[in-house]
Design brief:
This protein has 10 helices and no strands. The chain is mainly α. The protein has one domain (about 10-310).
Length: about 300
Amino acid sequence: MATQQNAPEQKSRLRFRILLGALIAFLGLSYGLVVHAAVTSTALLDFSPFALVGLLGALIANSTGVGGGVVFVPAFSFLRETGVMEVSPAQTVGVSFAIQCFGMSTGAVTWLNHFRDRTGNAVPQTRLRLLGQAVLIVAPLSLISLWITQYVIQPDPRLAFLLFKLFSITLGLALFLQILIARQAQGERSHFIPADMIALALIGSLGGAATALFSVGVGELMALYLFLRRFPLDVCVASAVIVSAITVLGGTPYHLATGNLIFEILFFAAPGVMLGGFLARRLAHALGAFRLKLGAAAWIVASSIVLIAISS
């Protein structure tokens, strides 16, 4: 009888191990290709500071649900605008996509492991259901919107950079507003109503297009909405991280085909983001929802203001 009762849990663990093994193999192969492409560069060591950029970006992205692009796009844009490094707007988006493939994928598995370890408890089962519903609603629509934007619309990267600054400031101010109006204690929501599902579908459709433009969008909008609706912290962050991972994995082949990747940056940034993705869940629970939202909002607004100042 005990064996029969444990059978579903054993199957769940087996599926997770298969997923984890496949992801490790994929990331290992991908990084091997990056090493092969970058190791011949005579200036490879000049790119070593990007390991810290990757670590910072992954910690912010995977602990708050906002995409790593809120760090990578401002960082690369700052280097371009100040003349330190020539990184075109298209390369900025492409490299940000590729870096997030490593960091967000690692973070997604870390968050899934967090839920898997607690399947015997009734409350986390409710949260696991919320997580699954959110991902299944948003991810497919995000991918469709992303691919239409990349392959059909093909917007001007310079326009995308302008929209990124406007999007970031709006997002950061929305987070600040949410913090101000939501300090009073209220219970967490345990299920989606039809209006939530419609909103998530819109977020997937609009967020996928935004992500195609500047490598961030769907995760940020999803995390913000779920925060505003007072769903549990781990559901808000984990669902945004997982959807972001799926979206950037789906969008990176476009940038590989169009030559927008800088492999020397990936050589150092990829290990940093994988470490950050592994550590981020612990950081999220150590800081709590209020500090996470405050820190994310401050970073998003400040980096956008700096970008506007140096490019004006």
